[in-house]
Amino acid sequence: MDKKQTRRRKAIQFISMLIYNADVKRWFSGGISHSPLKTVCVPGLNCYSCPGAIAACPLGSLQNTLANGQLPFFITGFFLLIGTLFGRVVCGFICPAGLVQELLYKIPSKKIKRTKRTFALTRKLSLFKYALLLVLCIALPLAFYFKDGLGAPFFCKLVCPAGTVGAGAPLVLLNEQLRSAAGMLFTWKAAVAAVFITWSVFMFRPFCRFFCPLGAIYSFFNKFAIFGIRVDESKCVHCNACVASCKMDTCKVNDRECIRCGECRTRCKHGALK
């Protein structure tokens, strides 16, 4: 990927993160934004409880809707719209969680290199995010609703590092009442976040690749989403140069792990990618 394209993608990522968290005065207040836009979702993973967040996270909205025993008509329509338009372009360009991991990966260190063994392993591990989507985001919120009359957003509560880094940590640091109330759950989430932060220094986007249910949802649309990478089959010689060095370990352009970042375009010597 040439430097101009890289800078453009990074600029889009930073601008998206700032738009998602545009209630700047709340960043240092110890409280969360009460923006009227909290009833709508942004496309990427950005916690509703982040101090400056002006809108909701689609993954959290899905869980909370099911946890309250409601059919997720709105959020399903949202996923259909965004997925059909962009697929995992969202992951590559407008997701703050992806940007943070990419910045961590830039820290000088010995990286986990791609080999036949690691490639085979990561492709299998990448299926884990679909299990998390099914179990923590759908099955458990529904099961606890039917059992107790109220479920919970289990992925947000137990796993999501974006909520811990972007919401939990700032709120606990700035709000004395929350700090005194923080218990074992916050300790657990802080430990999970620390693992992902460290892991991201050595491996490209591990949370996105193995754990993110939102990426799993958008991956279902990747093959036919309107915006993204197009392959001109009349020019493609199937040399696989486009994916040979892909840091997401894709097997081919637009497969379920492709975030459509555009790096493959510069690797193709035949002009087959548009």
Key words describing this protein structure:
54% helix, 274 residues, mainly alpha, globular, 14 helices, single chain
What does this structure look like?
It is built from 14 helices and no strands. With 274 residues, it is an all-alpha fold. Helix 5 crosses helix 11 (184-202) and helix 9 (161-174) packs across helix 11.
Please sum up the structure shown.
The protein has helices spanning 3-20, 58-67, 73-86, 89-93, 96-105, 116-125, 128-148, 154-158, 161-174, 176-181, 184-202, 206-210, 213-219, 263-267. The chain is mostly helical. The two termini are 13 Å apart.
> Strand-residue fraction?
under 5%
Count of helical segments?
Answer: 14
Q: From the helix content, strand content and strand pairing, which structural class follows?
A: mainly alpha
- Mean pLDDT value: 93
Q: How would you sum up the global shape?
A: globular
- Return residue spans where pLDDT drops below 50 for at least 5 consecutive residues: none
| Helix/strand order, N-terminal first | HHHHHHHHHHHHHH
Strand count, sense and barrel status of the largest sheet are: none
List the helices and strands and how they pair.
Elements: H1 3-20, H2 58-67, H3 73-86, H4 89-93, H5 96-105, H6 116-125, H7 128-148, H8 154-158, H9 161-174, H10 176-181, H11 184-202, H12 206-210, H13 213-219, H14 263-267
